[in-house]
Design goal:
By secondary structure, the protein is of the alpha+beta class. The protein has 5 helices and 7 strands. Helix 1 runs antiparallel to helix 2, helix 1 crosses helix 3 and helix 3 packs antiparallel against helix 4. The longest helix is centred in the N-terminal third of the chain and has 27 residues. The relative contact order is 0.15.
């Protein structure tokens, strides 16, 4: 009995993938707001304003014109990295200037967008649910999780979805990206019979 890996639709992955556009728009709006707040300040060099303005406009153009482009993991991660660097840079500049509240807000945004970057990095890979001889690997956010067979109570496999009930009463439902063949479904049932004594 060989291991089996099934491409699944992970609800959290899909939600994050499709909310990325609004998160970029929020970052662009914050960058634009920061640029405009420095427009009339004497101590701010004009280059500082124009750089922020161009970065925010780039992000807005990407959000409005390239929504399909943002579903490409590399493009999405590149712009997320630009946003992280921006918020970190502004946070450090404000920290050195003694503006603590603004510094804390921007550094917090940098940490939040770094966590998003870490989570979105996993979107480059296909979400796979794998059944092995020692347990099951399920896709998760930000990382996949592994359950030993002793921590699995039940598996309900259909042609278009799979449900896993764990020992700690979690119900993990995964729609499949493509329907199972009869042989694949039978292989899952064989795992269940062998390790769970059911199916």
């Amino acid at each position: 009995m060989d291991s089996i890996s099934l491409p699944v639709v992970h609800p959290t992955h899909e939600k994050l993938r499709h909310s990325g556009r609004w998160l970029h728009a929020a970052a662009g709006l914050l960058i634009l707001t920061h640029a405009l707040s420095h427009f009339h300040r004497q101590e701010s060099p004009p280059l500082y304003f124009w750089c922020q303005l161009l970065i925010s406009l780039d992000i807005f153009i990407l959000v409005m014109a390239g929504q399909d482009l943002l579903l490409q993991p590399r493009v999405n991660l590149f712009f997320r990295l630009v946003e992280i660097i921006f918020f970190l840079g502004i946070g450090l500049i404000m920290l050195l200037a003694g503006n603590w509240l603004t510094a804390i807000v921007h550094l917090s945004l940098s940490v939040a967008y770094s966590y998003l970057f870490y989570c979105e990095r996993g979107l480059r890979r296909q979400a796979l649910l794998s059944l092995h001889h020692i347990g099951i690997t399920v896709p998760g956010m930000p990382e996949s999780r592994f359950f030993l067979w002793t921590h699995i109570n039940d598996i309900e496999a259909c042609y278009d979805s799979i449900r896993i009930s764990t020992a700690d009463r979690q119900e993990l439902d995964f729609p499949l990206q493509k329907n199972l063949t009869f042989a694949e479904l039978e292989q899952i049932h064989e795992f269940c019979r062998h390790y769970l004594g059911k199916c």
